[in-house]
Amino acid sequence: MSNLRKTVTKEYNGRKIREFLKEELLLSSRLIRGAAIDKRILVNGIAVKMNFVIKEDDEIVIDLAKDESQDFEPEKMDLDIVYEDEDILVLNKKPFMVVHPTKSHQSGTLANGILYYFKESGQNCIVRLVSRLDMNTSGLIIIGKNQFAHMTLSNEMKTDNFKKRYLALVHGNLEKKEGTINAPIYRPELDSIKRIVDSKGQESITHYKVIESYKDADLVECLLETGRTHQIRVHLSHLGHPIFGDTLYGESDDSRLIERQGLHAYGLDFFSPRTKEQLSLRAELPYDMKELIKNLKNGK
């Protein structure tokens, strides 16, 4: 059972428990309200309401487990688990896999496999996606196992503490081996998924560094400061260096070299929602990108 525990300090003596939970544990009003209704807020072992007045040295316990369900089927599949604790699950997603069920993809998604894993391992959790990836982008994805973890990490993603690192294989050799792309991204048509660089768009910032160069190609590390849809793909294409295999933002047919865009979310740096420990997680390049690098080195 996943519980949050905290002892009341002197400064909260005589204050309401909801104030303590908001200020000390940074819990949302929604989470506190739901936990109080379900009698999952305990003070010295007794369930209390939101207006309960606490005193110094009271032992507060929040039971994070709650009965929930999702309207898609669990499916057994091979998951590449990079990290797991009582609050989060981090997976290395394979390419060509949809993250969450949609009208056109109701099964075979990563979420179907995660739900099966939770049930088989006896974990009373639903799939709360903290981060997402395009179907053809591989790499690290975070799932919150409870409302607390999902809320905490979703908020942290908006800060500089949360770092998302990608590796991209691009056409051509970048003139500057390191730099920052600060170019607003705009969606010109609501019925199209394609984005463009346009002054009417949202602020979008990508930091990049060339890791390795080949004949007319580079392996580029990208660190996102903002998280716009297709941001790396749009920005690199805007520089004149589209990603190999990117049929939406590239112009050449790379299907003989790679069957999807050569983009991999290889790194995540963030703080554990519970312990505040720094986590630096990495996932090695998938087979198809390794093969592409081998071919580029051989001049193919």
Question: Structural class of the secondary structure composition?
Answer: alpha+beta
> What's the helical proportion of residues?
10-25%
Determine Rg (CA atoms, Å): 22 Å
Strand content: 25-35%
Q: In the CATH hierarchy, what is the architecture of the largest domain at level 2?
A: 2-Layer Sandwich
What's the overall average pLDDT, rounded?
93
CATH fold type of the largest domain: Pseudouridine synthase
Order of helices and strands: EHHEEEEEHEEHEEEEEEHEEH
Domain module tally: 3
Instruction: Note poorly predicted spans.
Output: none
Find the CATH superfamily of the largest domain: Pseudouridine synthase
Basic shape: elongated
Largest sheet: 10 strands, mixed
Distance between the termini: 54 Å
CATH top-level class of the largest domain = Alpha Beta
Tally the helices.
Answer: 6
Topology, number of strands:
16
Description of the structure:
19% of the residues lie in helices and 28% in strands. The chain folds into 3 domains: 3-63, Structural Genomics Hypothetical 15.5 Kd Protein In mrcA-pckA Intergenic Region, Chain A, CATH 3.10.290.10; 81-156, 2-Layer Sandwich (Pseudouridine synthase), CATH 3.30.2350; 163-297, Pseudouridine synthase (2-Layer Sandwich), CATH 3.30.2350.10. The longest helix has 11 residues, at 110-120. The chain is α+β, with helices and mostly antiparallel strands. The chain has 6 helices and 16 strands. It comes from Clostridium cavendishii DSM 21758. It catalyses: a uridine in RNA = a pseudouridine in RNA.
